[in-house]
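Summary for the steering committee. The consortium agreed at its last meeting that each partner would contribute one worked example illustrating the joint modelling workflow. Our contribution is presented below. We chose a case with several input lines so that the handling of multiple components could be demonstrated. No manual editing was applied between input and output; the record is shown as generated.
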Amino acid sequence: MTRTLAMDLYALPNADSVVARAQAGDATAFEALYRAYERPVYALARRICRTTEDAEDVMQETFFEVCRSIGQYRASGPLWGWVRRIAASKALMRLRREKYRETDELQDDVLPMRRDDVALRMDLEAAFERLTETARAVVWLHDVEGFTHEEIAGMMGKTPSFSKSQLSRAHQRLRLWLGEEAMA
Amino acid sequence: MTHLTMDQLLACREPQSEPGTAAARAHLSACAVCTQELERLEQRVARLRALPPLQPARDQWPAVRARIVTSRRRRLVQRSAWGSLVAAAGIALVVLVKSGPLAVRVDAAPKQVASVDVEDLVMMKTRSQVLEAALESYNPQVRVLDGRTAVLADALQDRIATLDQQLQAAQLEGPDRGLPARDARLLQLWEERVGLLDALVDVRVTRASNIGL
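What follows is the complete predicted structure of the assembly.
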């Protein structure tokens, strides 16, 4: 459901022709792929990575990989789905490389003290930014990009239960930080 | 009355039903509080999807293109190096088979003539290997370069590739030109190669420190 929505948003009208030219090594086709997907790839990378530099790094790595591996792409699914999967893998690899877990734990410790602080009620974007790196990645990949828990688990090297648990905890936090009423 | 947990609410949104989801859905249809909570969850997800699109501050294409070009050139150079190696081995085999005794005579002569340059040559080759190892450990394939730096690094790699071809050609030169002349030429080429590798290391390391990698 969500996947179809995301795929349709970034459909490349002449994808078959662009892919065929890229597979033949046509540099203009590589650039066409880049121009078609630079924004969604950057958006995905930036929502998952902590800094713009990391996101730009992921973006470069993604398109380098896309151009290098385009010969392996089989038009069995939407092109954006293939590009997006590469981007998600690169972003998650970057998270693992940067070892963001330390900050994850720090934020977990801080959380209970802010429960009733109305002043800390924030907009959704700020609340999302405040999530841990892992939780943010899971929320974005699942709720926005439409990846399944199984797919996320595969890319993260974790179990689907881990992905579900991260999503659940993230939504509980978002709900709290956004000042939504407590569940009865 | 026990209301649904976040886990259960999220499970209700999944297309595949898990054990217990049917009961949770049944509860939802009868519980206004949980229905409202699910509605909030749906709204939160919808708002996440509607967050403003983020755009890169600068065009990354020149850097991506430079990486693609560099990678292609590297592969070409590797292929041509292997090709030359095979060709050289073939020529050496033919010479050995057709004129074995001559090859022995040729081998005997250069030891005294080229002995002066041998140490310099070995030193240059070693220095070249050290620099290549430094570049390799720096892992340039996963580094980000801005467009201008990438173009500079690309130009240097280009010149190194050309130099490698000249080196291969010089190494195949026979005794007709004279071994001292060949060794002098080889030494000059190796010195140039070391200079270019030095410059390449400088370019990559300087860029890395600039972006704090």
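Chain B touches chain A at residues 3, 5-7, 10-11, 14-15, 33, 37, 40-41, 44-45, 47-49, 51-58, 60-61, 63-65, 67-68, 71, 142, 144, 211-212 (CB under 8 Å). Residues 108-114, 209-213 of chain B have pLDDT under 50 and may be disordered.
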